[in-house]
Design a protein that fits this description.
The chain is mainly alpha-helical. The chain has one domain. Helix content is 75%, strand content 3%. The protein has a two-stranded antiparallel sheet. A hairpin with a 4-residue loop joins β1 and β2. α3 crosses α4, α4 runs parallel beside α7 and α6 runs antiparallel to α7. The longest helix has 43 residues.
Length: 253
């Protein structure tokens, strides 16, 4: 390696690190807030070094001006944040589902700090989120996500103008899909809540002297947790299929 090649090598590595680091800061499973920032940055640095031999040839010569260099780095950061944000919305679907399920089971008041989001959330949403993150690692879906990071250089060429219109359309569609998936996951519990509340209404009309509130609360929680025990395997299997579909969107055809 000659001295003349060193600036080009450093530029290519920094551009790879800019996109990869931005994606990993937001990616599910690898970019959780419970993971220290130094560990995430170290992983992004190691992954950038690993990908450098495959991706270094995709970058052009060093721009002649500072403005051109800033535009190049800005484009890589925009692409990285867009991809990472789209992947991060996978966990938003579980937050929607967990909140809907907790409302049906009268557990909306039970909250704790979500290790993935770094904020207070209902316990059922935290349980679904941690379970999903664990299963992503167990089923090696994180490898598919990393493959999507590599193929993003085919879908979004370095140095090209980021497709702002496509990114905005993707963001709107992904957010709508997150709500849709969340409601679909919570659908068995919504049906359970409707049937259970209807039964309580009939019981209160037939036996007005019974204190329905004291009967309904423990029965709702107990039966709801039993339904969760029966359907949790099916729910998470279906969710992993959805996660595979989302990660697969960033693979080159």
């Amino acid at each position: 390696m000659t001295i003349e090649l060193l600036p080009q090598v450093a530029l290519a590595f920094m551009l790879i690190f800019a996109r990869v680091g931005a994606i990993l800061m937001l990616m599910p499973a690898l970019g959780e807030r419970s993971i220290p920032v130094r560990i995430r940055l170290s992983f992004a640095l190691a992954l950038s070094l690993t990908l450098y031999p495959m991706l270094s040839g995709r970058f052009d010569a060093i721009p002649a001006s500072v403005a051109g260099l800033a535009a190049l780095f800005g484009g890589e950061l925009i692409v990285g944040f867009a991809i990472g944000f789209a992947m991060r919305l996978l966990l938003a679907a579980l937050q929607v589902a967990g909140s809907a399920i907790a409302m049906q089971l009268s557990l909306s008041f039970a909250e704790s700090v979500d290790p993935a989001q770094g904020q207070h959330s209902v316990l059922l949403a935290n349980f679904l989120t941690v379970t999903a993150i664990t299963l992503i690692f167990v089923t090696n879906l994180d490898h598919l996500a990393i493959a999507g990071v590599v193929d993003s250089y085919t879908l979004f060429e370095p140095g090209a103008m980021p497709p702002a219109g496509d990114f905005s359309t993707m963001a709107i569609g992904t957010i709508a899909e997150a709500f849709q998936v969340g409601v679909q996951i919570a659908a068995p519990f919504i049906v359970f809540g409707l049937i259970f509340q209807l039964g309580l209404g009939v019981l209160s009309r037939l036996m007005p002297q019974v204190q329905i509130f004291f009967v309904a609360m423990p029965a709702t929680i107990g039966l709801g947790l039993l339904v969760l025990l029966l359907v949790i395997g099916t729910i998470m299997t279906w969710y992993l299929g959805h996660a595979e579909t989302v990660f697969g969107r960033f693979l080159a055809p």
